[in-house]
Amino acid sequence: MRVLVAMSGGVDSSVAAARMVADGHEVVGVHLALNRNPQTYRSGARGCCSLEDSLDARRVADTLGIPFYVWDLSERFAADVVDDFVAEYAAGRTPNPCLRCNEKIKFAAVLERGLALGFDAVATGHYARLDRAGDDVALRRAADAAKDQSYVLGVLTQDQLRRSLFPLYGTVKADVRAEAEALGLRTASKPDSHDICFIADGDTAGFLTRELGERDGLILDAAGAVVGTHTGHHQFTVGQRRGLRLGVPAADGQPRYVLGISPVDNTVTVGPHERLAVSRIEGIRPSWAVPEPRLGAWRGLVQVRAHGEPMPATITAAPASVTIELDALAFGIAPGQAAVAYDGDLVVGASTIAAAA
C-alpha cells in the first residue's frame, strides 16, 4: 500500500512513519508548511509546524530512507483555520483550532492531494484506534488514556477514516519514545508540542488584539453593575478566571469568572463559579464519525475539551442540531467549543456548542 505520512517533526509522527516502513508499505513523508510568512516561524518547541520541526522531520525521513517533501498549505490554513479562529472570537465564541485543522487540513486538503497523487492512505501520529469491518470504520479511544486524541478527530467522516491510519493507537507514550530511541530517531526526546501553532509567543489575547484591534468596553457583574473595563471582548472566554483586572472586588471576597460575552455591545459579564453551572447543551452543525447518523434520543458520553472528562448524558440528535442533557452539572462550557459524543469508547460524532444553560 502507498502511504503518505504527515510528519510534524515530533516523535509521534516519526514513529508512525517508522512503523509504516516496518510494515512493508511504500512510504512517503510530507511536512505541512502552514505559515504564510516563514520569517515568523517560532524557535523552540512551544507549538508545532516550526522551521525546526520541518528540519527534524526531514532528518527522520533520511534516517528511515523514505522520500520527503514539504507541502505549502499556508493559504488554505489561513482561510480555514486562522481566519475562522479570529472570526469565532470576534463573535464571542471559543473555537478549537486543532480540531478545525484536522477537519479542514490534515484529513481534507492532505488527503485530497494524497489521493490525487495515487496514495492509498494518510498516516499520522495521532493516538486513536480504528476498527475496520468491511467498508465501515469505527473510531475509538487510544490505549494511552493520557494521550488519547479521539476528541480532536471527532469531526472526521467515514470517507476520511477509511483512508486514515493511526499506527500508535495501542502504544503508550513512554514506549513510543523508547522505540524512537532504539531506531536512532533524533526526535526521541523532543518535547511534545503545546499551545496554538500559529501564535508563536503563546499570547492568544495579544494575537487577537493585533488582528481585531482594541475596542474599549465594560465588565459587568451578574446584576449589571460595572466592575471593570477592557479593550476588547475577544480577550475573554467563558469560564476564564485569570487576567480579568477587576476594579471592584466581590462582596464575598470570592473569585469571579467570565459568565458571558456580548459582542454586540462589547461587554463581558462576570460572576461566582456556581453561575457557570449548566446541565443542557445545544449543538449545531452535527457531523458523524459512524456510518449512519444516530438520530433521536440515546444514552452516551459527551466530552467538551481535548482532555476533559467524559460526561454521561442523554443525547437527542436531529439532522441540523443536537441537544445534550447532562446527568450532572458541568462548568465553564463556552459557545464555539466542540461537543464530541461517545458510545463507550466509540466516537459517534461531534457538534459545535451554540448555547448552554
TrEMBL record:
Q: Where is this region: Interaction with tRNA?
A: 147-149
Does this entry carry the keyword ATP-binding?
Answer: yes
* Sample GO molecular function, one term: tRNA binding
Reactions catalysed according to its record: S-sulfanyl-L-cysteinyl-[protein] + uridine(34) in tRNA + AH2 + ATP = 2-thiouridine(34) in tRNA + L-cysteinyl-[protein] + A + AMP + diphosphate + H(+)
Identify which top EC class this enzyme belongs to.
transferase
Got a GO cellular component term for this one? cytoplasm
Return the protein name. tRNA-specific 2-thiouridylase MnmA
The gene from which this protein is expressed is: mnmA
